[in-house]
Design goal:
With 135 residues, the chain is an alpha+beta fold. The protein has a 4-stranded antiparallel β-sheet with strand order 2-3-1-4. The protein is extended and about 55 Å long. The two termini are 16 Å apart.
């Protein structure tokens, strides 16, 4: 891999906060951290309108005591079996559960599926993280 040296102008306060983040999380040096940010943004951009295949994780935190919610989650998984690769279910306490789904498909389809599940009554929080299936 051939590297090219570049110069960036960044506000002093922003750079201090970035350096603090790198130190707290032990993320290495500035150059590698900036390369990671660029790669992440390029993947996000590729997935924005992408018609290619993507992989994703969908995390849901929900109240399993909500009437019919668990059944709806299972039914949706079966209905979208081509997109849902795997699920993991964790009991957080007497009422709350964490569900993590591994997904594969077109970005727009995965967002639509995620929006549907996150919007179900009883889901407290949900987040979809998309990545390109091939880089």
């Amino acid at each position: 891999m051939e590297l090219e040296r570049v110069s960036l102008a960044i506000e002093r306060g922003l750079l201090r906060r970035f350096d603090s983040l790198l130190a707290r999380r032990r993320l290495g040096n500035r150059s590698e951290a900036v390369r990671d940010l660029i790669r992440r943004r390029l993947l996000e951009e590729a997935n924005e309108g992408g018609s290619g295949e993507a992989v994703a994780s969908l995390t849901l935190v929900y109240d399993h005591a909500q009437r019919e919610l668990s059944d709806r989650l299972v039914a949706t998984g079966h209905h979208h079996q081509a997109r849902v690769l795997s699920t993991m279910h964790v009991h957080l306490d007497g009422r709350m559960c964490l569900e993590v789904m591994a997904l594969r498909g077109r970005p727009a389809e995965l967002r639509q599926l995620a929006d549907h599940l996150i919007g179900l009554k009883g889901v407290q929080h949900g987040q979809l993280v998309l990545s390109a299936a091939r880089i």
